[in-house]
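Annotated sample (chain length 52).
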Amino acid sequence: ITEAFKLVHDGGFRHLPIVNEKREVESLLTVRDLLFYLSNQIVAELEHEQKK
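Output written by the structure step:
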């Protein structure tokens, strides 16, 4: 993930391929969607920890 963010910052690419076990591309994930997903997961974990 760190390398992907570095490439995005450098203007390398904007989409990440989603591949199956055979390494065939099934779809593309935008970096924006990935960041949104990761940030939501982090917030959910922090909220869960605060409730303990």
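Annotation: Residues 39 and 45 are 10 Å apart (CA to CA).
Annotation: The longest strand covers residues 25-30.
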